[in-house]
Structure formats: C-alpha cells, structure tokens
DNA sequence: CATAGGATCGCCT
DNA sequence: GGCGATCCTATGT
C-alpha cells in the first residue's frame, strides 16, 4: 500500500520518524523500480528546532518546500555533492520533516548496482543519507515531488513510500542524537535519530 | 556581487 | 581520525 496523505499529515514528526522505519522507499525511473526498506531516520521539528532549516520560521527559496503539506519530498544539496532526501510531514505551513538516513536495498538490485559502478552493492550500501539518494537515483531537482501517488505511466521519475506490512516494534528501535548538527546548541542533544536494531543472524 | 559554510562520503594515513 | 571534494544557498555589502 502506498502511504496516503493522511499518514503524513499527522502532527507528531518524532512519531512519524519512528513509524517510517520498516516502510519501503521506492523510485521508478523510466519504468524501472528500485526500493529499499527504511532502517534509519531523523526527525526535524520545524520552527522550534535549531537543527532544522526552517528554524525560527525561516522561509527561503530552498526551504519553502518544507512548508508544503505532508507527503511532499524535500531534497537539497549538501556539501556540493550529496542530495539528501526528506519527507515533509504535518499540515501546510508547518515545516516538519524526516530525513531518511538509511535503507536496506530490496528491489531493482541490478539498477542500483548500475548507479554505483565503482562499488559492490551489499546490504549495507544504503547506509548514509547521501547513499540512499545515490542508490535510488534521487536528485535535489526532485524537491517538491508528491509522494502520495504511484503513477501508472512509465515515463519520467517517481518517488513514493509503501507499507508492506513490516511491523517495527518499539523494542526494536534504537534512538540517539542526530548526526552532524553540533551547531544546534541544546537541540543537538535531542534523541531524534532512530534506527532498527540490527537483527542477529 | 562576494563569500563562507554545509543534516556527507570515501580515501588517506 | 583527518581531510578534500564540490557547488548551492544564504547572507552581507
């Protein structure tokens, strides 16, 4: 099932960051599907969060997408090199977002391998937000894309998130401070990073 | 217009 | 663990 608008429009971005664990982030480029199970996320809590691009109600050309309604993609370029993919959540004008930091590759392995010609695709290749976008072919020019449709046409590029019935129990979720947000003062310590505990065996 | 710096990654030692 | 890549974005003059 493609996650509907109602999933994303709920107000609690921290809860949503946890609920996105176990869901499948999917892209389709000219008819070819690639996807992976989300295993790591971070919550960015809108205007009150010093680590958020929208802190203090900041609206710029880049961040205006964060004020769109839940279920919109916010993708931006980091360090001039990496496209980082976020899911906008909550209602229009409330700039909450969840950064997808890791996936376990599941669909279209051959296509994903093509996207990383100098590396061998393994179960760990999708760890790191820059790597997520690389495997799935996501580019910052796709910022603003609607995530709530799984289009039928084969042309072009599409992004969505699916629930495939994988449940993630609270006991299987690790939390801790977010990565690379030392500039955020006290908010750098918030436990807004979530990971699925590594399964032994 | 000029400039500093970034929600990273991978290679180097 | 250290650092360079690489370029857009935000901000200041």
The helix/strand series, from N terminus to C terminus, equals HHEEEEEHHEEE
Based on DSSP secondary structure assignment, what is the total number of beta strands? 8
Portion in strands? 25-35%
Q: Distance between termini? A: 28 Å
The overall pLDDT average reads 95
Relative helix content: 10-25%
Rg, Cα atoms, Å: 16 Å
Biggest sheet statistics: 8 strands, antiparallel
* Helical segment count: 4
SSE class? alpha+beta
Would you kindly provide a written description of the structure presented here, covering whatever features stand out?
The chain has 201 residues and is α+β, with helices and mostly antiparallel strands. It contains 4 helices and 8 strands; from the N terminus they run H-H-E-E-E-E-E-H-H-E-E-E. Strands 1, 2, 3, 4, 5, 6, 7 and 8 form an 8-stranded antiparallel sheet that branches. Strand 3 and strand 4 (82-89) form a beta hairpin. The longest helix is centred in the middle third of the chain and has 8 residues, at 129-136. The protein is globular. The relative contact order is 0.25. It binds a DNA duplex (13 and 13 nucleotides) through strand 3, strand 4 and helix 4.
